[in-house]
Amino acid sequence: MFMGEYQHNIDAKGRVIFPVKFREQLGQTFVATKGLDGCLFVYSASEWQALEEKLKQLPTASKDARAYVRFFFSGATELECDKLGRILLPATLREYAGLSKEIAVIGVGGRVEIWDSERWKKYNEESDEAVAGIAEQLASLGI
Predict the structure, then answer these.
(1) Which helix (H) or strand (E) holds 98?
(2) SS3 52
(3) Which residues contact 46 (CB under 8 A, 6 or more apart)?
């Protein structure tokens, strides 16, 4: 399970040091793609394969399903860490997530998310009230 928040910098070539804890869990190769809320999603090979199987089950007759599958797979790329523990994020993914120099790498259960630090800070500020409401709903479910 991925958890925690780490702050890192992207170098001029688009490389970023990935947290050791996350590298160990992700394995040799893993997949990054466009995520929701303006961040990138990163999956281990096994998590990606499970997600891929679920997405294959979506009905191709559904316009929304086709749009989501296109969005998700079109940005996907296989990554691996170099000897220094860095990953090279493709320019298209950096542009999509608005990644500048400072980023936040966060663990979210079965995946890792990569955020521009300023976008992550803003997201947290805006979501405080919503999270409180969600917590109340989950409490009513016994969570």
Answers:
(1) none
(2) helix
(3) none
At 111, the pLDDT band (50, 70, 90 cuts) reads very high
- Tell me the C-alpha distance between 120 and 142, whole Å: 29
Average pLDDT, the chain: 92
Handedness of CA 37, 25, 71, 89 (dihedral sign): positive
Distances (CA, A) of 101 to 48, 62, 123, 133: 27, 39, 18, 33
Q: Mean pLDDT across the stretch 53-64?
A: 92
Could you tell me the two tokens for 120? 């992550």
CA-based R_g, the chain, Å: 16
pTM of the model: 0.90
Instruction: Answer whether 12's CB lies under 8 Å from 73's CB.
Output: no
Calculate the CA dihedral of residues 18, 22, 25, 31 and round it to 10 degrees.
-60
Residue 61: exposed, middle, or buried by beta-carbon count in 10 A (0-12, 13-18, 19+)? Answer: exposed
